Structures
1.
Amino acid sequence: MKFVYMLVFALIIAACSDSKHGIKVKGSDTEVNLAVKLAEHFYEQEPDFSVSISGGGSGLGIASLMNGQADIANSSRPLNPEEDSLFKARGIKLHTVVFAEDATAIIVHHDFPLDSLDVPTLAKAMSGELNNWSSIIGTNLPITIYGRQSNSGTHSFVRKKLGVNFSREAKEMNGNAQIMEGVRMDRSGIGYVGAGYILDGGDDGSVKVLRITERVGEPAISPLDKKAITEGRYFFQRPLFQFIPQSSWEKVQPFIAFEQSAVGQELIRSSGYYTVEAK
């Protein structure tokens, strides 16, 4: 097994070169660490298979699928209308698998004086309507936003949930690790990362995960509260998708079956994500 981490995190498990047993998975950075772990354990059970996994964003994974460069597109969002139309126009029939659920964590610097924010205030901060923390924490401190590129499913998810466009001043980062590092070093910073990334060891305690309340006066909920996620009470929670073309369906079924097995479900839970059956 060989691990490579460049602009995207990739896993290549060297095995049989037979194309009938070679599976290419591309897409969501939210899902990439989990996909790597699943692929590792799948290979232990099915050594005749070769699984290649890379991130780069949900949009990239979907485009790769459309261009015949992937067997599975991992995506932290559903297809948008334009993508759905393009697949239909090209005669590409897709199977859709919801293999886990995730929560998006809103993070700030460890020394940020508040433990929670309400959604309306968060929307103003992320859109740039508020560009200074002074009215929120009483300290004159410009707000610095750390987010993802527009092809990221997490970018699209957070933007739609907040009902705003992100500030043009927002810094566009390549993935969870870069956002974490940016906020870790910036007392004025705020960003969003996958809760699974934090629960799976991505946080060393140098950032603060905010509890979120949908409306002022309502209870604030943490994305790390598994009971709240199971009950569907956290504002930023979502299903994680895998899109598979009909032409690859037979080949990838053993991998999908492994994800849905007891071993696969335990790997999903232990990696900080939530199994679909838990809802």
2.
Amino acid sequence: MPAEKQPIPSVWTRPRPQKQQPALSRAQIVSEAVKLLDAEGIEALSMRRLGSQLGAAATSLYRHVANKDELLELVVDEIYGEVAVPEADDPARWRAAISACAHSLRTTGLRHPWLTALLGHAGLVYLGPNMMRVSDRVLAILRSAGFPPGEADQAISSVTAYVIGMTGSEAAFLSLLARTGYTEQEWIEQLWPAAEQAAQEHDRLREEFAVQRGQDPVRAREENFVYGLDRILDGLQLRLDQLSGSR
């Protein structure tokens, strides 16, 4: 006889307690967790540590969240509240609107370097109210542009995967850099001789390094991000043209 299936564990799939503990709210817990994550990273976050930061026993936190996984769902959704999405008021400007949203997500991910590492690992994050709001507004832009239901969601997934991938790499690098005490320019100058030496037997790499020599690293990261984003949007525009021609 098959075992009885258990409910899917998520803060978004179980009823929220009707009575809130007066001395400690869910909002306070999430706010303090975000501060701790921003200051010390994912490794520092535990229910015990968070309780200590709030001046409360860890057991009191469990009145609001069942476990750390549920807490992570909440903090991810909290940060998604910072992502700005333009109104879908001009179908002809869909590309500029999606680009603005992608840049806002990147900025948010760099402001909270732990965010991209949690996406995909923090339970049912896509059911959070802020995540749902962002997704719905981006869908509105793509639907108004001409993408049909289903394909509009695929377009979102393509753009989001690119932004998260690029931002995750940037955030990891900048977190490493912060621990070294070097500026980004100092780090590159320190490593450049070793990089050039390693590329001596690789002609194409030497050419690429020669082009990059002396560039502002912050501007270079921005340009790399924009280049990849533009190529994805080029592809989506081509798909829109195909859809328009088939009608």
